[in-house]
Amino acid sequence: MAKDSAWGALLRRYGRIFSEAWRARHEMQGLPHTREEAQFLPPILEVLETPPPLLARMILWVVMLFFVVAVIWAIIGRTDIVATASGKIIPDDRIKVVQAAKPALFKKLECVTAIP
């Protein structure tokens, strides 16, 4: 019984801490930097604070949209006609025969049945 109350107290504590941090998340971010201001930050902060280029974001959105449309199309779409045909392939160029250099015979063929 003490174990359940310990876990409950721990989860309540972390839930309270998370909710307080969630309410104060906008205060912790600080002021946004312009692209020119971000150039004078230390290198790692410059990378983190500089927004990605518009073209890169647009390409990312187009690729994600393509995949979403492809998945929806694969779910909804149906194959209407399946055509099969018989025929023979007749090559136009040279034909090369592939065969073994020496004919061989089987001396022994070992096999095991998997059915008991």
State the helical fraction. 40-55%
Mean pLDDT: 83
User: What's the total count of β strands?
Assistant: 0
The largest β sheet comes out as:
none
N-to-C SSE string, H for helix and E for strand? HHHHH
Please give the alpha-carbon distance between the first and last residues: 53 Å
Counting helices, strands and paired strands, the structural category is mainly alpha
Specify the overall morphology.
Answer: elongated
Radius of gyration: 34 Å
Counted by DSSP, the helix tally is 5
- Detail the poorly predicted runs: none
Percentage of β-strand residues: under 5%
Task: Give an overview of the whole structure.
The longest helix has 23 residues, at 54-76. The protein has helices spanning 2-23, 25-29, 35-38, 43-49, 54-76. It is elongated. The protein contains five helices and no strands. With 116 residues, it is mostly helical.
Give structural attributes.
elongated, mainly alpha, 5 helices, 116 residues
In a nutshell, what does this entry contain?
With 116 residues, this protein is an all-alpha fold. It contains 5 helices and no strands.
Give the helices and strands, then pairings.
Layout: H1 2-23, H2 25-29, H3 35-38, H4 43-49, H5 54-76
